[in-house]
Amino acid sequence: MSLEINHRRSASSGTVGWERFGTPDQATSAELLWYFFPGDVEILSHGTSLASEVGSVPALHFVAAMVGARDELASGTGSRYSYDFTEADQSISFQRRGGDVRIETSFSTNVLTIPLDEFSSGVRLFARREIEDLGREYPALLAHPLMLDLKRRCGGDERVERPL
User: Fold this and answer.
1) For residues 107 and 116, is the Cβ–Cβ distance under 8 A?
2) Nearest 5 degrees, angle CA 124-CA 125-CA 130?
3) DSSP labels, 63-116
4) How far apart are alpha carbons 64 and 134 in whole angstroms?
5) Domain ranges (residues) in the chain
6) Quick one: which of 19, 5, 110, 132 has its CA closest to 67?
C-alpha cells in the first residue's frame, strides 16, 4: 500500500495536551476529542506529502474524522468530506471521484489522488495504529467508551505495525 497517514504528537511546550495534567481514561469523550494528544498530521502517497505544521491537531479528533471521511466517501461518487483544524485556519478536503479519492489541503499545494479501496484500508490501519499506540502508553484508556467506539468503527482485531 502506498498510502500512509500519521499523527505526530507535539513535543512543543506551547501545545501541551491535557494528558500532561490529568488522566486520559477519566476524561469525557469530548475532552479526549478536543484537548488531548495534540500534534501534526501527514498524509503521504508515492512520495507526495500533505503535512501540517501547527502542532495542535488532537489525535483522537483526527482519527474520528478520518474514519468519518472513509465512511462518507464510501456512500458514493461525488461525496465529500472536510476536516477543519480546531486551533488553526486550515483544512483537509476529501472528494470521491469515481473509484478514487482526491485529497487537498489549505496548507499545501500538493494534491493526492488515491484509489478508494486503498484510502479505506489506509484509514483503518492508521486509526487502529493510533488506538494501539495510545493504549500502550495509557492502558486504561482502551476501556474508554470513545476508544471502544473508534476501534469498533475501524474493524478488525489483528495488530498493526507502526511504519518506520
Assistant:
1) no
2) 100
3) HHHHHHHHHHHTT-TT-EEEEE-SSSS-EEEEEEETTEEEEEESS-S-EEEEEH
4) 14
5) 3-154
6) 5
Q: Is the pTM of this model over 0.70?
A: yes
Q: Which residue intervals of 1-88 are DSSP H helices?
A: 29-35, 59-73
Cross-strand bridge partners of residue 104: 93, 111
CATH for 3-154 is 3.30.2450
Residue 13's alpha-carbon distances to 39, 41, 57, 69, in angstroms, are 12, 18, 15, 31
**Residues of the chain whose pLDDT is less than 50?**
13-15, 158, 160, 162-164
| In contact, 47 and 3? CB cutoff 8 Å | no
At position 51, the amino acid (one-letter code) is: A
Q: Residue 162: its pLDDT value, please? A: 46
For the segment 116-147, what is each residue's pLDDT rounded down to a tens digit? 999 999 999 999 999 999 999 999 999 999 99
